[in-house]
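Chain A, query sequence.
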Amino acid sequence: EAGSFAVRAKRADKSFPLGSQELNRRVGAAVRRATGLQVDLTNPELTLRIEVVDRRALLYCDRVEGARGLPVGVSGQVVALLSGGIDSPVAAARMMRRGCRVTFVHCHSFPYTSAASQEKVQGLAALLGRYQGPAELYLVPLIDIQRHIVGHAPAELRVLLYRRAMVRLAARIAEEVKAPALVTGESLGQVASQTLANLTAVDRCSPLPILRPLLGWDKEEIVAEAQRIGTFDLSIEPHEDCCSYLEPKQPATRSTHRRLSAVERRLELEPLLEAAAEATERRLVAPAEG
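Chain A, predicted structure.
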């Protein structure tokens, strides 16, 4: 049992007739008479907190840390590209924390890769649902676009061309759900496609702003946050990422929008983008329990 105590009052309702200090004195005196505990305003073993709101006094001793941030939805809607790795779920969670409702898009290479990535991403969306509730997950087949790129574009540009196609497809979904921005989990310099030059080249193809909440984070910080929000264990389970499909040994690290646009004009990707959009599957994902 506590041997000393202090009272900390806060009067949000200024119409309440007693001020904070007067509340501290009166309640402190009553507690001391009733319990015999000593008053210690410097290092009390027990702190009784009082908050006066709407002429009601709320009393408590313990404080439990909440999720912080803003209520989900007050900052609008965004569409997040969810790969199934460690980074993108953390990026989505950061946007939820700042009040965004997140719709998820996952691009896959099925049937050339297994369907495991789709189920894994659905599991991640369910885990993130604990922070925002049910969410829409769009599963976009990228394989025909990738095969066309592999057959007709320079190998070192493959991943960047994949990424630009994914951004365009995600932007179509964003337009459908009336989201004004996209979100990715990219971190500056982490891999070849995430150099400043390459991020800029990808940005230039997007009709919407691309938000990157992890841009300045290092991998250790991202891993720690993934562990904190509960997505890490599922994220590290093996799966085949669509960007790893015939990934070149020496990808470009300093491409440009002009060069990529010139290649895309020769590729004539629009019919393939239309077909991928038509074949997209929509799922409604319920939050995970726990």
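The first strand starts at residue 4 and ends at 11. The longest helix spans residues 158-177.
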